[in-house]
Amino acid sequence: APAAHVQRDLEGRHVVVTAGGTREPLDPVRFLGNRSSGKQGYAVAAEAAARGARVSLVSANVSLAVPDGCDLLEVGTALELQEQVGSLVEGGGVDAVVMAAAVADFRPADYAEAKIKKTHGPDDETAPTIELVRNPDVLAGLVRARGGGRRPYLVGFAAETGDATGDVLSLARTKLERKGCDLLVANEVGTDRTFGRDDTTVHLLQPGQDEVETVGPATKTLVARAIWDRVASSLS
Ligand code: CTP
Ligand code: CA
């Protein structure tokens, strides 16, 4: 029962949680988006607030009730998310950042001020090619900005499907090393797994630690609890 969970081990901490998925506009009515529902990020934010933290919830395109005790900061695009997280962290006093949001890696190179039309004449059967440019890697930027310091504690998520180059765990290990964060939460994704669902299986990986904790199949609340258990013990 939730009432049994009365640990206040994040009292006095300020944490930033990003949730949802960014949308990168193409024209006034269209965007490039992803399938993130925001459920995992909102569960992470709710759990931190329940454990006593001040929570800044940077939310990208989520239609869920805001958890009790969280300050909602809404963003649309990856650039807006980067700016919001950056200003929170630069303000000082942030103990941890959990990057649960699905941040678009690319955005359309150009934004059309007017709706893109299908045809430009009676015989026009052409289709446009959409050029993309890279978005900044927000988590990598936080790792860089921290320099050699240990604050804020940085948690990354890895949505992996597994591919020809490796299974979910080996891809996650490589990503943890590349990202330089303190904890990586890896989950297996596919169209009917994880996205929008209430239960999930994740693997928790930390740098320099060979053993991997697997949580699940479990509710996103239990996953959130396991994440904050790790963060709280690292902060203390
Ligand atoms: N992330 C970020 N900024 C981006 C892309 C991702 O901060 N532009 C963060 C995500 O919020 C997540 C972590 O980086 O916490 C890993 O995201 P993921 O998409 O799994 O990794 P990428 O490095 O983007 O690699 P790829 O998509 O190629 O697997
Ligand atoms: Ca990505």
UniProtKB/TrEMBL annotation:
One of its GO terms (cellular component) is phosphopantothenoylcysteine decarboxylase complex. CTP binds at D105, K115, P136, D137, V138, L139, F157, K175, K179. GO terms for molecular function: FMN binding; metal ion binding; phosphopantothenate--cysteine ligase activity; phosphopantothenoylcysteine decarboxylase activity. Its cofactor is FMN; Mg(2+). GO terms for biological process: coenzyme A biosynthetic process; pantothenate catabolic process. Residues 10-233 form the DNA/pantothenate metabolism flavoprotein C-terminal domain. It catalyses: N-[(R)-4-phosphopantothenoyl]-L-cysteine + H(+) = (R)-4'-phosphopantetheine + CO2; (R)-4'-phosphopantothenate + L-cysteine + CTP = N-[(R)-4-phosphopantothenoyl]-L-cysteine + CMP + diphosphate + H(+). Its EC number is 4.1.1.36, 6.3.2.5. Pathway: Cofactor biosynthesis; coenzyme A biosynthesis; CoA from (R)-pantothenate: step 3/5; Cofactor biosynthesis; coenzyme A biosynthesis; CoA from (R)-pantothenate: step 2/5. Binds 1 FMN per subunit. Keywords: Decarboxylase, Flavoprotein, FMN, Ligase, Lyase, Magnesium, Metal-binding, Multifunctional enzyme. Residues 15-236 are annotated as: Phosphopantothenate--cysteine ligase. In the N-terminal section; belongs to the HFCD (homo-oligomeric flavin containing Cys decarboxylase) superfamily. Catalyzes two steps in the biosynthesis of coenzyme A. In the first step cysteine is conjugated to 4'-phosphopantothenate to form 4-phosphopantothenoylcysteine, in the latter compound is decarboxylated to form 4'-phosphopantotheine. This is Coenzyme A biosynthesis bifunctional protein CoaBC. The chain holds residues 177 to 412 of 412 of the full protein.
